[in-house]
Q: What sequence folds into this?
């Protein structure tokens, strides 16, 4: 018996050691290091064989940071914010505002009738002797434009007769002064003095009529005064830039009312007849926007004008859409265009001087911000909504049938789906449905770029189920 135990004892020791080593090996490595180690089917919780002091890596897979979803959130560096233009001005808390619902109609900038273009015609026949301005040059009211030598026979005759009457009156005045002294001495009767005085009165009356005749020929009071003082025929006339209606020359000079020589139709040495156009001046300080409303919009446009509502305009300025506020309608046409079935109405538009410079040759040129023929859109208010969330169009991005706003959340920007109640070219009215609240900070620009960044991060198009639980 002893010999039998001595023979099997080594095998028992080896078997026990093997069982002990196998159990230790299984507890340390199976399910943790070897990729092919697995828990048998139906073997219970997969966490049973995991060490308690080592974190479970799978527990963090797919988890989001606190307060936002990775799939709908974007972390921006300071340089990225600067690239998007997200300064403090464009990171603002949401406030409830009043919003005017508008209809937009196409419009075009046109002349202001009777004011924008002024034609200067020759008051009398003559030859152009000097031209002081060039086409496109800017002039102020009262500036000299050109000079003409008069050849009008009627004007020459009228001036000669006027000078003759002035000379005859001077003679009568001298004779009256001589006779008054003699009459006082009793040398002659007072009847002769009365006759001379009657002759003087007749000459005064004739001179007044001849002066009016010179005015009708186109001479100014200053030019007639020159004839009176110098006692010579006026051989040349000067043509000046006119003063706008309803303004004195002093007022115009104080405000520097600028005109543009739009069309110069004569040149030096040219003979012109009375009534011919010498030049055309453009006054672009005040223009009109001609709106075109369809028949279905006529009532709304007329109501807005009757109630004195302010009109806005959207114009493309240097590649950017600019909004002009607080414009007023001037009048509405009484006829609908039979061809286009539209009704024209007009809005007063104040222009802005953008450039005023001298060229190398000393000519002055100006440039206005708004130009005749430029297209724009007019916004006519038809209703007002109170206490609304109103955001710039750059703050709301559309992706298919969805719209999103980016809300600041610490160092991240969370994409929040919103419902658009109304959108125009500059603003979007977002429904106040609890997606965010007044006081929440949102990005007022760069929504499209951030949307593209989120799509790029996700590696393709937006998952329609992102952010939803099923």
A:
């Amino acid at each position: 018996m002893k010999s039998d135990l001595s023979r099997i004892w080594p095998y028992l020791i080896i078997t026990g050691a093997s069982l002990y080593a196998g159990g230790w090996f299984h507890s340390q490595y199976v399910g943790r290091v070897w990729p092919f180690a697995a828990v048998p089917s139906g073997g219970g919780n997969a966490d049973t064989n995991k060490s308690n002091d080592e974190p479970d890596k799978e527990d963090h897979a797919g988890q989001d940071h606190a307060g936002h979803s990775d799939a709908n959130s974007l972390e921006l560096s300071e340089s990225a914010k600067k690239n998007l233009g997200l300064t403090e001005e464009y990171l603002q808390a949401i406030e409830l505002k009043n919003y005017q619902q508008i209809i937009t109609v196409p419009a075009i900038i046109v002349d202001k009738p009777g004011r924008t273009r002024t034609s200067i015609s020759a008051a009398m026949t003559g030859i152009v002797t000097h031209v002081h301005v060039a086409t496109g040059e800017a002039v102020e009211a009262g500036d000299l434009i050109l000079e003409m030598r008069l050849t009008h026979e009627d004007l020459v005759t009228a001036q000669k007769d006027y000078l003759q009457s002035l000379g005859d009156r001077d003679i009568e005045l001298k004779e009256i002064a001589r006779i008054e002294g003699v009459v006082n001495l009793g040398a002659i009767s007072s009847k002769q003095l009365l006759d001379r005085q009657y002759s003087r009165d007749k000459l005064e009356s004739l001179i007044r009529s001849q002066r009016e005749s010179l005015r009708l020929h186109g001479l100014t009071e200053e030019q007639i005064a020159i004839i009176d003082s110098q006692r010579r025929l006026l051989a040349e006339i000067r043509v000046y830039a006119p003063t706008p209606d309803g303004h004195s020359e002093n007022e115009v000079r104080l405000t520097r009312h600028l005109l543009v020589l739009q069309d110069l139709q004569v040149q030096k040495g040219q003979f012109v007849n009375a009534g011919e156009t010498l030049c055309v001046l453009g006054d672009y300080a005040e223009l009109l926007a001609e709106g075109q409303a369809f028949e279905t919009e006529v009532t709304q446009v007329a109501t807005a004008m009757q109630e004195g509502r302010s009109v806005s305009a959207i114009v493309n300025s240097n590649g950017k859409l600019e909004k002009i506020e607080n414009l007023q309608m001037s009048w509405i046409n009484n006829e609908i265009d039979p061809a286009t079935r539209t009704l024209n109405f007009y809005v007063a538009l104040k222009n802005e001087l953008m450039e005023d410079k001298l060229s190398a040759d000393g000519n002055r040129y100006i440039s206005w911000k708004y130009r005749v023929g430029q297209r724009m859109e007019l916004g006519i208010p038809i209703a007002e909504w109170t206490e609304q969330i109103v955001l710039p169009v750059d703050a709301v991005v559309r992706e298919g049938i969805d719209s999103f706003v980016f809300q600041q959340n610490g160092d991240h920007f969370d994409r929040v789906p919103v419902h658009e109640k109304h959108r125009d070219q500059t603003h979007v009215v977002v429904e106040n449905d609890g997606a965010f609240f007044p006081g929440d900070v949102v990005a007022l620009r760069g929504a499209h770029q951030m949307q593209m960044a989120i799509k790029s991060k996700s590696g393709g198009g937006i998952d329609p189920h992102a952010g939803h639980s099923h």
Remarks:
- The first strand starts at residue 73 and ends at 75.
